[in-house]
Amino acid sequence: MVNAYQAPTVKKAFQILKSVSKSRQGMGISELSKQLFLGKSTVFGILNALENVGAVVRDPTTKTYTLGVTLFELGRAAYSRIDIKEIARPAMEALMERVQESVFLGVRNKEHLTILDIVESMQDLKITAPVGSRIPLFAGAAGKVFMASMPEEQAAELIRMKGIPRFTKHTIINPMRFMEEIRKARRTGYATDDEEYIPGVRAVAAAIQGTRTLSAAIWVVGFKPRIDAKKMAFLAEETLYSAREISEKIKTADAAR
Amino acid sequence: MVNAYQAPTVKKAFQILKSVSKSRQGMGISELSKQLFLGKSTVFGILNALENVGAVVRDPTTKTYTLGVTLFELGRAAYSRIDIKEIARPAMEALMERVQESVFLGVRNKEHLTILDIVESMQDLKITAPVGSRIPLFAGAAGKVFMASMPEEQAAELIRMKGIPRFTKHTIINPMRFMEEIRKARRTGYATDDEEYIPGVRAVAAAIQGTRTLSAAIWVVGFKPRIDAKKMAFLAEETLYSAREISEKIKTADAAR
DNA sequence: ACCATTCGTTCACCATGATGAACAATTTTA
DNA sequence: TAAAATTGTTCATCATGGTGAACGAATGGT
User: How far apart are CA A49 and CA A33, in angstroms?
Assistant: First the structure.
């Protein structure tokens, strides 16, 4: 079913929702029209439908649109059906106790990652992010692990089409070197990040197996001064162990169904 | 802008999402087609678009669709912008301490209510529900308060078109009597429920004012044996007081912007 | 105060998008 | 095991849905 029909208006609607979701104060029709290269009457017609279903709310005084409660309802339902976060939570907590850094759980959603859960480090200074946040696919250890999970041609094609954005001066932007990192992650089962996504930050990520329709991983993140080469090796070992532990639990949960 | 154009395909897409959100195991194309009275190729084209944007996930083995991570991302963003729940939370906690029953915060979303926050009673036996749950607009004290907030013609029209479903043997289904309840709620600022929605349960609700684009209310719910007539009057007084307190805070927050 | 610009809204037009029919694949029934 | 029924997928068709042009309202600049 290559190149199957995809209702274009639905895709435009979600482009609109994504733009509106990035705005704090709401967005108007002309602003959305310009930003998304859509006609104003197209935006107008789609927003009317989104408002009708409660996916956006129109402020009658400013004529701007913000996200509506229906998205919250659907979002809650979507989140409540992601079993992996319950399955993974105990292992994430145990991992955080052992390594004393924040532990993230995330999934790939098209060309970015979405954070599903976090067990924050108990240290006063720690790295965290809101659950639901998006991270670029090319960013850091987690990104490499996700790209290692996909067929090599698909990963290569993404690199070719999108290019690797430079996040820091340490970002690996050379496609051949980046593909090597991905192959290494595929071989070892984990990936590392040494200030490639955020300056002063190191990370280790490992993929979770056995999730039928989701591509999932956990990763540990900490400040570089706290993570020398020895601790980095320790993080890799522990993260890989926890990812396998979670993968086993998933397999057990599936068999019990 | 009466009868303005609303992109029909977008509305169909959200019908599909709503149906899928009620399913635990995912739904197939023919099932959705029958349930929603849409053509199979229409459902097919819309689901392809929804999958492309990550709003649904297709299970390749069962060919069923479940809600995708994009909805979770948008839902998180929608929820994070609803200021009222932070503003209301302290007053809800204080109200729960005073009345010792669960306190709900919700908003109207088209023709139903959505729970945004709950401060659960500390008693062992209590009433609660998942945040994000939907409640029918005609149900209980909260429903009356929301209908009291809308123009009388709009409320009357809804009753005429939808009819009042019978939830319990105490449900007020007579339209004239129900309109009287709504008028009373409008006059007094609060509404009550005496086993009209759930057997054995009483509730009091009060509207929150000053929310520009949302229609919001708080309500207290408890088991009837714990709530005699005297306590019911006490609940009404306290709930109304807390709703006004929250309304004042909203006004103050708006003025500070 | 007036003019220019921008925004939101309406409407007629037409071609793109939604869909019904047909077909292939899969599942169910006998 | 074979036939019937159902599901998912493809494709040609055409009319409905999306949209460009025009207009009214609001805002900004002089």
Answer: 16
What number of other Cβ atoms are within 10 A of residue A218's Cβ? 29
Residue by residue, pLDDT tens for chain B (257 residues) are 667 899 999 999 999 999 999 998 899 999 999 999 999 999 999 999 999 999 999 998 899 999 999 999 999 999 998 889 999 999 999 999 999 999 999 999 999 999 999 999 999 989 999 999 999 999 899 999 999 999 898 899 899 988 899 999 999 999 999 999 999 999 999 999 999 999 999 999 999 998 888 899 999 999 999 999 999 999 999 999 999 999 999 988 877 66
Radius of gyration of chain B (CA): 20
The alpha carbon of residue A6 and the mean position of all alpha carbons in its chain are separated, in whole angstroms, by: 24
Candidates B2, B9, B65, B73: best to mutate against A (most CBs of A within 10 A) is B73
B56 and B13 Cβ atoms separated by less than 8 Å:
no
- Whether domain A8-74 has CATH 1.10.10.10: the reply is yes
Q: How far apart are CA A145 and CA A195, in angstroms?
A: 16
Say which CATH topology domain B82-255 has: Beta-Lactamase (3.30.450)
Q: In chain B, where does the domain assigned CATH 1.10.10.10 lie?
A: 8-74
Strand-pairing partners, residue A114, are A107, A134
The strand pair at A216-223 and B56-59 is best described as unpaired
CATH 3.30.450.40 region(s) of chain A?
A: 82-255
Contact between A53 and B10 using a beta-carbon 8 Å cutoff: yes
Do B247 and B208 contact (CB within 8 A), yes or no?
yes
Closest residue to B114, CB basis, from A72, A81, A214: A72
CA A233 to chain CA centroid, Å, is 24
Burial A128-150 (b: 16+ CB within 10 A, else e): eeebbbbbbbbbbbbbbbbbbbb
